[in-house]
Every structure is written in C-alpha cells, then in structure tokens.
Specification:
The chain is mainly β. It contains one helix and four strands, in the order ββαββ. The protein starts with 5 loop residues before the first strand and ends with a strand.
C-alpha cells in the first residue's frame, strides 16, 4: 500500500487562544467525537510548496505584488510517519506517509 502524505497547514493550538483574556481555552465541544479543528489538517498527494523562514523574510522586505503568491513557511517535516487519531479524522484512525507542518 502506497503511503499518503499528510500536511498540517495550521497548528491546532492556534485555534485555542481566548483573545479576550489571554487564557488558553478550547473552543471545541466535548460532545463532538468526530471533529478536528477546521483547517488544521489537509490530506494531500504531492509535496506542498513552501519556503524557509529566511526566504520569507527576504520576500517580505518589500511589499509584494500579491501576498497570496508567497508560499507558506515550512516549520517541520518528517518522512515515513504514522499518525494515529482518536477520535477518527475523516473516517480513519491511522495515516501513514510524510508530514509537513507549514504556516501561512
């Protein structure tokens, strides 16, 4: 069976800060066993476009023609990983493949 790459474009923790008082709180409901933060994970079949922190700094020293043309920053990558979900994510409890954590 061929491994399927899994990318996580946004850290789940990014959705957990209560901006009113600065406390870390979860906005997820305890009742929803099949929910994962929207936008936290994306299953992909090819390596995503990304740039390093240094490349991002160089690209943003001046105002670009379009901010959306700048690829996300690669924060972490690991090949041949096994990720287990509890509760299941998109109907599966296990994914095998490569992992890229990027920041838009």
């Amino acid at each position: 069976m061929k491994s399927q790459p899994v990318a996580a474009p946004t850290p789940v923790a990014a959705d957990r800060t209560n901006t009113e008082n600065g406390d870390e709180t979860s906005s997820e409901s305890d009742d929803s066993e099949d929910e994962v933060a929207v936008g936290a994970l994306e299953s992909i079949s090819v390596k995503p476009k990304f740039i390093s922190v240094e490349e991002h700094a160089a690209l943003t020293t001046t105002t670009p023609a379009s901010w959306s043309d700048i690829p996300p920053i690669l924060r972490f990558s690991e090949e041949a990983v096994k990720i287990e979900f509890d509760p299941a994510y998109q109907g599966k409890v296990e994914y095998k493949g490569d992992l890229w954590v990027t920041e838009a």
